[in-house]
Fold this protein.
Amino acid sequence: MSRPFFSTQLEGVATYWRIFRSDGVTLGFTSHNRPLTFDGITHRAAPGMLPSAIRRTARLERDSVEVQGILSHDAISEADLESGRYGDARVTIGLVDWENLDRAALFQGTLGNVSSEDNGFVAELRSAKAALEADFVPRTSPTCRAAFCDAACRLNPSFYTRLAKVTAVDVEDNMVSFAGLQQGSDYLQGTVRWIDGPHAGAAMQVVDHGAGGFVLDLPLSVTLAAGHRAIVRQGCDHTIDTCAGRFGNAVNFQGEPFLPGNDLLTRYPTSSS
């Protein structure tokens, strides 16, 4: 902050918001009645956005943030929200002097759950302190806790990832097929990250497969057509049988498939035992 705000009774101060989506799109808004450009970002005028309270403390619990109307601007479409483009997006809220563009960030965090309400949208804002609430102690589980091809899994993702083009789309069944990819179970629970087309930058998960292609977890646009490209990665069901039999990677399995469960405590001897 280059100077203290609200040190005098009359100041030209507005609130600004920035949303950094995971697909690379950045959106900026301000409560001023005209757009403001600073830090290389044009903040669109959105006087209807109502900041009510931002509370910051030195304690470890997450800071509370209340902002109404932050997702009601025309630049934020219902289709983008439903497709998950705003999932875990980074958010910055601050103050700016609209005359000399002096500014100060008051809140930095991520966008949480987004829900529809009264013809608008309500979003949960999570401060950076929310990371302190995460439990980093691994819990035992019969399935693998590692993400497929991550640092714990240690499989090379290039062996299981393909750049493919769409050959057919069935919007009614939310199904898409790709050239050169067998529509088999290897891609079940896999990911499809779109490079171009209406879903460019978005990632979807394969939830089912059939003769007609892959069924994805998010709605497909009616403008998706043959020729659009995506990076398609195979999936894993995180079981020891798949890890050992299909990938030969049991040495890196991040689970305890043979650990007795709670049912062991309820067992009792029988005549056959």
